[in-house]
Write a structure and sequence with these properties.
Blueprint (H helix, E strand, L loop, with lengths): L7 E6 L4 H13 L3 E7 L19 E5 L5 H10 L4 E4 L6 H6 L1 H25 L4 E7 L23 H20 L3 E6 L1 E3 L8 H10 L4 E4 L5 E6 H14 L5 E4 L4 E3 H16 L10 E4 L14 H7 L7 H14 L1 H7 L3 H9 L4
Helix pairs in contact: 1-7, 2-4, 4-5, 6-8, 6-10
The structure holds nicotinamide-adenine-dinucleotide and 2'deoxy-thymidine-5'-diphospho-alpha-D-glucose.
The site of 2'deoxy-thymidine-5'-diphospho-alpha-D-glucose has 19 residues, from helix 6 and strand 8.
Length: 355
């Protein structure tokens, strides 16, 4: 087949996870002429229920596999000529990285390097090839009360998770410098929305409020995060993949900072309304617990580069996004019960027992 006329084969790793599932859905819907391959190991965080609505789409295929397995990755890359890779597969939860750092080294560092190695041949044969690495603002470490992370902020990771992501970013850049691999990296702030595993702050607290369980706020709750609706992140990824400049990095954020305790109170108010509970009922569930070791005080992204170069900005306000998120978790309690059964429950009990 003439390569020029063949459809674009795009590999999305981690497509059964939270952000990956939104990226896969967007690409399958928007690019009917591409073949979208979703490579995922289906760890506790990956769930094909997240993609039920598109599983029969003619331009979508699922491949179950582990990116830490170099033989598997090389074999897959020898069978399919990928024109581009959007790499999201990762261990993503900071608290888990504190209790099990090696899993983060394996997946986030070794897994990324396996994909980079396998990509080198594809990039030799195809000048349009792109390795797009999805990373986090946590690689920059912690801000004080003032200032923002921009693309030239020095890396200063504090958790095993962010150290593993920083390492994978460095490897991607190093493969660009050393072997000429065409790449782009984007570093995004905290995402929220449908399909997020209920170990992260927003879905954990929604789930706990529904079930009348304590809301474990770490430390004094004055830690600050910059929240972005996941579909806005997926749109940004689409733009960067198609229009971003190779060899560049882009910061993506919500211009939407909240202290954890304020966000928790807002969630409690919205949930009281939703559940028809008396105002103030859910706030009684707030429980201050032992702080996360190495807890970063504040993240905030200066997203002016992606805004100026690619015209991206968040389209969903926090009020709209939270409303849609809460509605989704209400309508998908079976999903919640399913993903929080089994091993996860055991983990949760060990990790988050309140003081
Ligand atoms: P997630 O934990 O919800 O999903 C990760 C996915 O990767 C899962 O489907 C899992 O099965 C898969 N996976 C894990 N190990 C694998 C392996 N060895 N081989 C193949 N697949 C494997 O993560 P997420 O929150 O959707 O994050 C996706 C990416 O975006 C990550 O790289 C993360 O670092 C980055 N990121 C996340 C956020 C956020 O707020 N969640 C913000 C910025 C960047
Ligand atoms: O900034 C981007 C990062 O955001 C991503 O790279 C990570 O993959 C993602 O998990 C997220 O990391 P955080 O550590 O910021 O997210 P988390 O939801 O775990 O915590 C948000 C804040 O809430 C943080 O300050 C810790 C606090 N927290 C979290 C939990 C789970 C609590 O106070 N109580 C909790 O139970």
């Amino acid at each position: 087949m003439d390569k020029k006329n063949s459809p674009k084969n795009i590999l999305i790793t981690g497509g059964a996870g939270f952000i990956g599932s939104h990226v896969v859905r967007l690409f399958v819907a928007e690019y009917g002429d591409y073949q979208i391959f979703n490579l995922d190991a289906l760890t506790y965080a990956g769930n094909l229920e997240n993609l039920k609505d598109i599983e029969q789409a003619p331009n979508y295929s699922f491949v179950k596999g582990d990116i830490t397995d170099a033989y598997f990755v090389n074999d897959l890359f020898s069978q399919i000529n990928f024109d581009g890779i959007i790499h999201l597969a990762a261990e993503s939860h900071v608290d888990r990285s504190i209790s099990d750092p090696l899993s983060f080294v394996r997946t986030n560092v070794l897994g990324t390097v396996n994909l980079l190695n396998a990509s080198l041949q594809l990039a030799k044969d195809n000048t349009d090839f792109l390795f797009y690495h999805i990373s986090t603002d946590e690689v920059f470490g912690s801000l004080g009360r003032e200032g923002f992370f921009n693309e030239s902020t020095a890396y200063d990771p504090n958790s095993p998770y962010s150290a593993s992501k920083a390492s994978s970013d460095h490897f991607v850049r190093a493969y660009g410098e050393t072997y000429g691999l065409p790449y782009i990296i984007s570093n995004c702030s905290n995402n929220y929305g449908p399909n997020q595993f209920p170990e992260k702050l927003i879905p954990l607290f929604i789930n706990n409020i529904i079930k009348n369980k304590p809301l474990p706020v770490y430390g004094d709750g004055n830690y600050t995060r910059d929240w972005l609706y996941v579909k806005d992140h997926a749109e940004a990824i689409d733009l960067v993949f198609h229009k971003g400049r190779k060899g560049e990095t882009y910061n993506i954020g919500g211009f939407n900072e909240w202290r954890n305790i304020e966000l928790t109170r807002l969630l409690c108010q919205l949930m009281d309304k939703k559940l028809g509970r008396k105002e103030g009922t859910s706030e009684k569930l707030i429980t201050f617990v032992k702080d996360r070791p190495g807890h970063d005080l504040r993240y905030a992204i200066d997203a002016s580069k992606i805004n100026k170069e690619l015209g991206w900005k968040p389209s969903v306000t926090f009020e709209e996004g939270l409303e849609m998120t809460i509605d989704w978790y209400f309508e998908n309690q079976e999903w919640l019960d399913h993903v929080t059964s089994g091993d996860y429950l055991e983990y949760y009990i060990k990790q988050y027992q309140t003081q």
